[in-house]
């Protein structure tokens, strides 16, 4: 239940349109609903401004469906990250509005109109192989009401590709840079823009990249000012943080 719905409920009580018992029925599952295997946080939107996001990996189809079913009762937009086509089909059976984004491996359900920001977030990848993580970041940001500009495959192996899109990148309020291998792109972008840069190391690369650890350490040691780093492959975290900056 968001703040506006809570306000409407109290206004109805004030006008004697509903009883105290009816109000209690609406509020009894606040602040969370205990499903046994999960506790759905209905207060998340009141505290954070956006409903709880469901991390799908490691959950069974039945668990995801039950969590989504509970969240649908509150009529909020829903994002399920790191999930499969098979789980999506199960969710689709209980909600025809569900959409599956293959690259991001995410399910989205839009129940309310999303007001889109005037300013935008730029999502930049070093390579095509980084796009799945970048799409998770972009989709998260879009679900939170942000305009997103995608700029893919502009890594340091061909720096002219990045420079060709510099005007778009510099026009963003915040830039997400997604890169595997040696993770150098975040430092390069950080040295070219006056906006905050959120670096996302990916697990893309040959053996000595250590499944993203090399990129993570390179980004943490960036000599460019204004570069912050999230965890390996954490597109969701980058998209969420970028949204807070863009809409702040």
TrEMBL record:
Provenance organism: Thermatribacter velox
Top-level taxon: Bacteria
Pfam name, any one: AIRC
Name of protein: Nickel pincer cofactor biosynthesis protein LarB
Database matches in InterPro entries: P2CMN_synthase_LarB (IPR039476), PurE_dom (IPR000031)
SUPFAM superfamilies: N5-CAIR mutase (phosphoribosylaminoimidazole carboxylase, PurE)
Domain PurE: 119-248
Lineage of the organism: Bacteria, Pseudomonadati, Atribacterota, Atribacteria, Atribacterales
Signal peptide from the UniProt entry: none
